[in-house]
Amino acid sequence: MSASTLAPLAESTATRVARNLLRSRELAIVIVLALIVLVATTRRSSFLLSADGWRDTLLAPSILLLLAVGQMVVVVTRNVDLSVGSTLGIAAYVTGKIFVANPDTPVIVVFLAGLGVGAVVGALNGLLVTVFRVPALVITLGTMYVLRGALTHEVGSERMNAQDFPAHFEKLGTQQVLTIPVLTIIALVVVAAVGYYLHTARGGRELYAIGSDPDAADLYGLPSARRVFGAFVLCGALAGLAGVFSAARYATAFSGTGSGIELQAVAAVVIGGVAIFGGSGTVWGAAIGAFLLVTINRALPILGISEFWQGAVVGALIIGSIVLDRVLSIRRTHKLIEARDHA
Amino acid sequence: MSTAAHQAAAQPLTLALRGVAKSFGAVQALKSGTLEVAPGSIHALVGENGAGKSTLVKIVAGVHRRDTGYFELAGEPVDFGSTAESKAAGVAVIYQEPTLFPDLSVAENIFMGRHPLGAGRRIDRTRMFAESEALFARLGVDIDPRRTANGLSIADQQLIEIAKAISLEAKLLVMDEPTAALSGNEVARLFAVARSLRDEGRALVFISHRFDEVFDLCDVVTVMRDGAYVSTHLIAETSESEIVSKMVGREVAELFPKTVAPIGDVVLDVQGLNSTGEFHDISFQVRAGEIVGLAGLVGAGRSEIARAVFGVDKYDAGSVTLGGVPVRQGKPSRAIRAGMAFVPEDRRQQGLVIEGSVAKNVASVIRGRLSRLGLLTAGAENKAAGPWAAKLQVKTSALDMRAATMSGGNQQKVVIAKWLATNPSLLIIDEPTRGIDVGTKAEVHRLLSDLAGQGLAILMISSELPEVLGMADRVLVVCEGRLTAELSRAEATPENVMAAATRSAQRDSEKEPVR
Q: Is A336 in CB contact (< 8 Å) with chain B?
């Protein structure tokens, strides 16, 4: 008979939490991240220990953080959203337009506008994916080009620069509270809120279930289409918010804003241990993955690695983490089956 | 039926289906399904492959919607448009291979979509785990609700499905061949759980090909044949032989005209073929001009044997010889060159380039021979394909018609034409007439018969007993990966074949784990 108890049930919650933490994929990335920061800081102490270095370390990942969170929610349902870079570009441009029209517009309005523009794009992606049942990879590749094309048509060679954005908005890009940048605080609040939802709400757990086995989700009678649609809307909205962040941080918006960043978002998610075929992974992992990606790019020049090699390093990191995940997952399955057969 | 009728008077039937029919395109999968299940009973549903059991179950589960007929649950007429509706009405279906979420915990698999909630609509994990443990305690099994479903044995996965059904307060549990992948001990545990559920007053429907299990566990048995209801018996008042005769009780029609052909030399010689977990010690021969039928239930290992012989799948031990020349395993290209042809079960997926033209499909295996300087012209393809298509009377106006738009029968002919173009000495054909309408079936059968008459050796796998009995010169019966009988045309009666196909191999805890 195959008794399936692997760990004694009497084990205390604290022990279990500690063991899960130690074994977690997230801890591994945190260690890698800490090592990189440590080595870079040893080489050049200003990397972390100056006012600017501290601020940049925290601020630089804030945009990718938002995109990675949104992407994670989509990827966990066994989908992907490649249009987030174009969405970001549109939201940044809309932000600029609003300020050109009325420099006194309150900041909250552009934030809401960014979220709204992004949510509309996300709803479009979600509808196409759930109604026509076409793979998200293809649909969002399409919307990525269509939206970028529309943006280029609208913007042309125009470029919004610092003088187009009001000072109070630009200040937001570097503003700090207790030395922590405001944009990073907002991004971390988003990470926490989405993470809480995925862990504690039925809807959040259903996203995991849909990604784990879509056919089983249908047999369970889960509202798959509605949940996947919601995931795309959230992902789009966060990409729109990232567009506002981008405008605030760089005080610029042009037709190429955000081009290519969608792949970084997917990379962050994968490095963070989220299964590309859905069903497992955490928002924390994706967030740390985003931190790691951005920090590596900042650290490489200090470590004496030419910027031409930065892409290669990121690529190696992605392949490494996928291979690691695969090996760990095979080992885990083998262990479970062994435990079953020898019970 | 007297006892069941008494119960029905006191309490409404948990499930009543009467004269239910369902068609898929031109194929009528269920002509007239009738099943009446009383609460507090275990009801067996038996029948050959293709008798309509699965379709009936899928209608109850809400996967398919019936075309006509009466369907009621606990006295209320129902009509399920989705699995969610049937579940809400108290129906739980446990499939042969349960569908769980491998990445999620066992407890979440039980409670997905209806997690117990605490303050602020947060999921109350403590309660979820406690309730899962209580469910398992009630079932008398020891599964950690915190572990992931990944890596669980099929038996444990089924128990999770049962736990889910209980927590849903299901009135009706349907188990579709639940014991196919279980060891003896696991079967005993499952039956103990099933009996305790019955004693709680639930109704269970148990689909199985194993008569020993049906007679051990069930109270009532309903027999189906050819998509229609045949009869219902109390287990205590019937016998295995009566059930078998009800299952096969039809005249073998003259639909299948295998002409007598001179039997020649041995073409295919298979010796001691073994593949752990799939089949064991398979030895047989096929001679020129002979049609050998490979019969057995779905999942018995027939297709696996055929795939191994053709060299698609690897095997652990044994040898395959074609015309005196050994065929290496794992190399279908060698098998083709040696003169083997293989028409797979699923022609849309495996046999055809479904979007390609008739000519392209027919010419696809002999591309190498047709090409000049590595280039293949449409002209060469048409020239090669034309005679074959004509010979097989493929009804297409033009050779450039896409295979996807053709009928099942014509598609099958295209696949056969494709292989005949390679001049094979052995044709392996898996389910030659699945999903083909009756008229075209006869044409496919005539074609196979003609080919045998021309000296081709044919190994035919079929789940349709009349087809096997009508076509085959010799019948090999496979049960649970072993050859359990070799019957000559004269010996091959429906009863003999069914008996060999349901002859459970020795089942004990020593049985090696499946998969």
A: yes
Q: In chain A, which residues have their Cβ closer than 8 Å to the Cβ of B147?
A: 4, 6-7, 336
Instruction: Show me where the domains of chain B are located.
Output: 2-96+172-179+198-248, 253-339+424-515, 347-423
Q: Answer yes or no: same fold for B2-96+172-179+198-248 and B253-339+424-515.
A: yes
Provide the 8-state DSSP code for B118.
-
Query: Which CB contacts under 8 angstroms, 24+ apart, belong to B508-515?
Result: B508/B183, B508/B184, B509/A1, B509/B183, B509/B184, B509/B185, B511/B183, B511/B184, B512/B276, B512/B277, B513/A341, B513/B153, B513/B183, B513/B277, B514/B154, B514/B181, B514/B277, B515/B154, B515/B181, B515/B277
Q: With a threshold of 0.80, does the pTM exceed it? A: no
Distant-in-sequence, close-in-space partners of B480: CB < 8 Å, separation ≥ 6? B300, B301, B504, B505
Boundaries of every domain in chain A: 47-299
Say which DSSP state B290 is in. -
Q: Considering only CA atoms, which of B164, B162, B159 is closest in space to residue B131? A: B164
Hey, are the CB atoms on A221 and B114 less than 8 Å from each other? no
Q: Is A146 on the interface with B (CB under 8 A)?
A: no
Which tens digit of pLDDT belongs to each residue from B359-411?
Answer: 666 666 665 555 555 555 666 666 666 666 666 665 555 566 666 666 666 77
What value of ipTM does the predicted structure carry?
0.83
Instruction: Name the H helices within B288-437.
Output: 302-310, 332-338, 358-363, 367-370, 378-391, 408-420
In DSSP notation, B194-230 reads: HHHHHHTT-EEEEE-S-HHHHHHH-SEEEEEETTEEE
* Cβ contact A218–B83 (<8 Å): yes
| Residue B348 pLDDT grade (very low, low, confident, very high; cuts 50, 70, 90) | low
Considering only CB atoms, A206 lies closest to which of B99, B113, B513, namely B113
Q: Tell me the C-alpha distance between B134 and B111, whole Å.
A: 13
Q: Which chain B residue is nearest to residue A219, measuring alpha carbons? A: B83
d(CA B141, CA B325): 54
Q: Virtual CA dihedral for B60, B63, B66, B69, nearest 10 degrees? A: 10
Q: How many residues are present in chain A?
A: 343
Joined together, the tokens standing for residue A332 give 């885990």
Chain B residues whose CB is inside 8 A of the A6 CB are 144, 147
Q: What is the DSSP string of A54-107?
A: HHHHHHTTHHHHHHHHHHHHHHTTT---TTHHHHHHHHHHHHHHHHHH-TT--H
pLDDT digits (tens, 9 = 90+) for B255-311: 566 677 788 888 899 998 888 778 888 999 999 989 999 988 777 888 888 888 888
Q: The tokens of B324 are what?
A: 């005196």
**Element at A249 (helix H, strand E):** helix A224-250
Sign of torsion over alpha carbons B388, B393, B397, B402: negative
The class (CATH top level) of B2-96+172-179+198-248 is: alpha beta
- Confirm if B107 and B129 have CB atoms less than 8 A apart: yes
Residue with tokens 């080992």: A331
B50 contacts: CB under 8 Å, gap ≥ 6: B226, B227, B463, B464
Q: How far apart are CA A171 and CA B472, in angstroms?
A: 86
Report the topology of domain B253-339+424-515. Rossmann fold (3.40.50)
Q: What's the full length of chain B, in residues?
A: 515
